[in-house]
Amino acid sequence: MNVLSPSIRLSSLFLLFSAPALAARPLTMEQSVALALERSPRLIEGRAEAASAQAQLEGASRLIQDNPQLQAAVGPRFRDVGNTVELNLGISQPLELFGQRGARKEAAQATVSARQTRLESLKVELAAEVRQAFGAALAAEQELTLSQDALALAEEGRKAAEERLNAGAASHIEVNTARVELGRAQSERVRAQRQRTQAHAELKLLLGLDPSEAIDPDGELRAESAPAPTLASLIEKAVSQRQDMKAARFEWEAAQAEARLARRQALPTPSLGVSYGREENYNIIQGTIGINLPLFDRNQAARGVSSARELQARQNLSALERFARTEVELAFNRYLTAQAAAEVFGGDVLAALQENLSLVTEAYRAGKVDFLQLLIIRREALDARRGYIEALEELNSAKAQLLKAVGNIQ
């Protein structure tokens, strides 16, 4: 039995516990959108519905919809002199001669197009949510960095207060206040870590990733520099290209085709066939023709249902057009507001605040400012940085919603 030396065992333990964790998966925003469109469980139902509609189209495209009907009759013929056996065989095929097949195929094709565009609309919505979640993850990263900076400043302030106390230039109140501020900074750092963990979990949920898989959002929230398009151009673009609008149009087309089919199914359906019989040792072959008489069942239920669906589809399309215009206007105004809020922090504002943040602790050590001024200046600078992060996150969210309202997936 081999026994490892204590030094080898200690080295093994050190390597075990110092081994780096599995590297986090780096993801950009566009990579996250592509991954969500590939793996998100939210698209499973939409893909299944599109495949189901395609199968229905294949069935509706058959030239003959109904199976042929086989008939047979056999029995004795009783006669005064010698009985005989009579045999009759026949086969007939119902035919659609009044455009039923064309209307059925048009309805199925429009349904396929509607399901496919509904799927594309789901992708647009999912992409917008991923962009929002990715922006929230980036903001959480920046919030965590900010909390770490605040913690370092609070620790530096505590040390400065203790130095001034030892030098007789500060009171115990200042030192205690500095310690309280340090505890507050530590609490903010814990909150920022928890917020970062939650943001990563929400993003992984949208991407269809395993909860245990670590991710590293790669990117930076920044203010927009390009001029915003006009509201009129965005509304026109939304009405023409939104996938849910296209789906509503296809659904209206399908409802119209179904209404035509229901009306034509109320017409008589002829059947053509051939029969064979044997009577008194003679073979008899005949052509047959039949026709149903729509006296009682004139497809009233299907006609009423299809008419109601056609009206509903037309009203849904009109309502969706009004909704799209309003949604674009709201999203556009939100985007302009967010852009203006982010621009407030531009220029020299953050630079000046950051410079004050760097100088104020040394000024406190030198006795040029008191501790209250130190806290005020520090909190103003940190609050301004936090406000800028929030403004950038809102701008990213507003942009994602505007893309969704217009119908853009990217």
From TrEMBL:
Which UniProt key words apply to this protein?
Answer: Signal
| Endpoints of the signal sequence | 1-23
What's this protein's name?
TolC family protein
Taxonomic placement: Bacteria, Pseudomonadati, Myxococcota, Myxococcia, Myxococcales
InterPro entries reported for this sequence:
MdtP/NodT-like, OMP_efflux
Question: What protein family is recorded?
Answer: Belongs to the outer membrane factor (OMF) (TC 1.B.17) family.
Coiled coil start-end: none
GO molecular function annotation = efflux transmembrane transporter activity
Please provide an example of a Pfam family that matches this protein in its UniProt record: OEP
